[in-house]
Amino acid sequence: MYAFTYHRPTTVRQAVNLLAKNSEAKLLAGGHSLIPVMKLRLGSPGALIDMNKIEGLSGIELKGRSLVIGAMTRHGEVATSQVVKEALPALADLAGMIGDPAVRHRGTIGGAIAHNDPSADYPAAVLGLGATIITSKRRIEADEFFKGMFETALEPDEIITKVSFPLAKKAAYQKFKQPASGFALVGVFVSKRGADIRVAVTGAGASGAFRVTAFEEALKKRFSPKSIEGMTVPATGLNGDIHGSAEYRAHLIAVLARRALAAA
Amino acid sequence: MSATGIGAAVRRKEDLRFITGKGQYTDDISRPGETRAVFLRSPHAHAKIKRVDTKAAAAMPGVIAVLTGADLAQDKIGNLICGWMIHSKDGSPMKMAPHPAIAANKVCCVGDQVAVVIAETLAEGKDAAEKIKVDYEVLPAVVDAAKAQSAPAIHESAPKNTIYQWHLGDAKAVDAAIKSAKHVTRLDIVNNRLVPNAMEPRVAIAEYDSGTDNLTLWNTTQNPHVARLVISAFVGMAPEHKLRVIAPDVGGGFGSKIFIYPEEVVCLWAARLVGRPVKWTSDRSEAFVADAHGRDHITHAEMAFGEGGKITAIKVKTIANLGAYMSTFSSSVPTYLYATLLSGQYDIPAIYCEVDAVYTNTAPVDAYRGAGRPEATFVVERLVEVGAREEGMDPAELRRKNFIKTFPHQTPVIMNYDAGDYGASLKKALDLADVKGFDKRKRESERAGKLRGLGYSSYIEACGIAPSQAVGSLGCGVGLWESAEVRVNPTGSVEVLTGSHSHGQGHETTFAQLVSERLSIPIENVSVVHGDTDKVQFGMGTYGSRSGAVGMSAVVKALDKVEAKAKKVAAYMMEAAEGDIVFKDGKFTVAGTDKSVAWGDVTLNAYIAHKFAGSQLEPGLKEGAFYDPTNFTFPAGCHICEVEIDPETGNTEIVGWTAVDDFGTVVNPMIVEGQVHGGVAQGIGQALLESAIYNAEGQLVSGSFMDYTMPRAENLPSLKVDTTMTKCPSNPLGIKGCGEAGAIAAPAAVVNAITDAIGSEDLAMPATPPAVWAAIRKAAKMQKAA
């Protein structure tokens, strides 16, 4: 690990100011993606801005027809929250599948979404539920947020404070793990909220999480695995690596989508 | 059987310190004035080193020295060696290329050492290493064993990258048998390359005492005396009596800590140069590229069958990838530890095996849990299983028909099996695995949309390595006996010094069990000392499941001598004839009388010596012994694996595992069961999960735990573990050894089960979900086309 300056602001405003002043700075939330990269000397941010002492960034709240989760809420809290389990059980399930217990006790929803790892689980839920990302500046719709692998719509001095998930009538997440890392080789999140039907995929896309509009269209008639029986996803634009070819990932998307629909 | 004697499930004495964090591993040790070594490693698989500029690095804060291959050569530090000579078919010796501890002219694999920084702290060392400038001329790399012989030579001394072209057996007899066979089963097999990944990475601390001219090395080694011998006699670091090697608690080895590595040589050399202790601790990323890997064979194998499924011959051609350099025992693994086991448990009249060993631009490959025997078992047990399927025979029945039933049995490939009952372990395994109920379970799986399969592995291994004369005649540079010393204290407690080394096997318990039973003393009164060349005179270390069969046999010999001496002492004490003394239940009795003295009385008298008549009896009670086995031992058994496969994803779940092993005498059934569990986990790892994958440029793509899949608890079923027993007639305790069995048996059982489930033999390890899915699709397409 290289030397860096460590900052520990106590308000979002302080954090934003630090971020604005220091173009080399990185936000430290759970640290489970950032710290290993630094330890391997693959990343060397000049400064870290630790978010852990900022009050009010953590917590789960049901607000009308939305579940609002603070950016610093740990995966473990989401996975075990009675509120989440009742309002959006698919989201609790997903959070419970992230990493291992150590990761779930440190990793945060805001950190995971801002990092936008193409194999992370949360982007599938954000996209698959049509969530809204609330930042220090504005509200960003899920469909506008993810901009490709490790890229988001966040501006350099913008910080996620909350994520608001609309409650779905039906939702489920199916994950097929990359066996070594435990990340999603393919993860598929499906949901139905009135006429809004979403099928979002993580792990497979060469530019991050994406929606399968062909499946969504087919599901408008009936939200059931039968509606997409025999349908496939083209392998072009999908990841292929030692853990699975693009063809295999394409195949898994259809399998997992059907299973998610059956489970929803 | 006493409560702490042989056969008792005694809790491991060493576990108190291990599970309470009191273990003392090499990295836990710090020496006063210690410096840290950081290696700069090659990022290229194959390149000429045109220039190494250390100036900027040397000027960095905290840097004590920056050393290169040129410095090493100037100091005349010798190359690392491979200690087992193999001759090619044409009689020529193997082509051992120079292996300097720091590369001087060229690098031959990613991770090759190019320079070392000795610094005050690890961070300063790492910062400085980044400032070393190396001019490389990158050369084309070859990583695949199948392409090595047509690629440009990596080492001048090895044309066509060929180390040797070796063979064993009778080619003519085999060809004749294949020609006249009723059926021939043919398979192309890849035995996947594995990274050992012991939990504790390798560590070396070297210290030089200029007052005495002594060098000390604390090292994560499975065989400290062999390390001292090689570093002294071949590398030329220091005379043997001026070099002490200490292997403290070692956290797993699996073979990878047998070998003499560049890093410890460099630490010793640097410690003398800088006049301060030098410590190197491998990080996990380094371990992936710098530890010797395992397996990596490409094989074509044929098995000939006569009437009624009788096996008449096996013919095998293997290309073994030994990596960039020949590691310490690498040459023996794909030859004498491999082809000699190709008879399996079967009476096969003719066997022929050819092995080409090749250099590639990959990490060196050497012994890894099982070493050659897993590869042999995989070949034999896949051939038998596929042969049975092709012949429409029950695979258990075909095995039974071909089992060796009388002993001793001379195979056509050197080994003389001394004892076994292969039918007994198969029968017990069939019962425990409820093979009769398999069809019903298969139907239930089918109803749930799943495929179910059953696979056997009736493995054999040659352990208790090994008779010195035998291995000497096969090219081994050392003898493979073991030593022991039994030191009895005046109060009757006992210290056992052994040349074996425990790095997880539990010797402190099992060796003490032997002494406790033999002398009828509490197990708490026995301590086991190992892993220090200043304490134990010499020893060959632990590998090849040898510590029980060879190491404990040496203890038995020493105990025999202790008992004989103690009887003399007792005879003096009781004024009786030595020949009349009987030792039983911890008491020395004059036969036919009620006169007796207790163990503690005798041990005390041995040291106070008041009652001895001058020169006729020496005081003291301490005896040493060297034991050289008369044969290998032959643990064998049957493992049955049952799998359920999700055909949509290709995911395999192991739903049943039965292991019935014949290890001969079992000293501690709990420890043996643990060894079986660990071995099976590693074998399942190889079959389903693990693979060291290099890309065409020679970069290790699966070079971290994010990409290299270690077996986890969730990958493993509950194991049914049981034993049968035929005692080993070749050593006094009847022990065969158990450390490697699981890793040897498991891969074939898993692959036999999966191929049974999917109805296709076209499947390589690791059988990952995408690989199984692709095999299912391919088989379906071929069926359609047919």
Sum this structure up briefly.
Chain A is of the alpha+beta class and 264 residues long.
Topology:
The complex is a heterodimer of chains A (about 260) and B (about 775).
Chain A: E1 5-7, H1 12-21, E2 25-28, H2 34-39, E3 47-50, E4 60-63, E5 66-70, H3 75-80, H4 82-87, H5 89-96, H6 101-106, H7 109-115, H8 122-129, E6 132-135, E7 139-141, H9 142-145, E8 160-166, E9 170-177, E10 184-193, E11 196-202, E12 210-211, H10 213-219, H11 246-263
Parallel strand pairs in A: 1-3, 2-3
Antiparallel strand pairs in A: 4-5, 5-8, 6-7, 6-8, 9-10, 10-11, 11-12
Chain B: H1 15-19, E1 35-41, E2 47-53, H2 55-58, E3 63-68, H3 69-74, E4 106-107, E5 113-119, H4 122-129, E6 133-138, H5 145-148, E7 162-169, H6 171-179, E8 183-191, E9 203-209, E10 214-219, H7 224-234, E11 243-246, H8 262-274, E12 278-281, H9 284-290, E13 297-305, E14 311-321, E15 350-358, H10 373-391, H11 395-402, E16 409-410, E17 416-417, H12 422-432, H13 438-447, E18 451-460, H14 468-473, E19 482-488, E20 494-498, H15 507-519, E21 526-529, H16 547-574, E22 581-584, E23 587-590, E24 596-598, H17 599-608, E25 622-627, E26 636-646, E27 651-662, H18 669-689, E28 719-724, H19 741-758, H20 769-785
Parallel strand pairs in B: 1-12, 10-11, 14-15, 20-21, 27-28
Antiparallel strand pairs in B: 1-5, 2-4, 2-6, 3-5, 7-15, 8-13, 9-10, 9-12, 13-14, 16-17, 18-26, 19-20, 19-25, 22-23, 23-24, 26-27
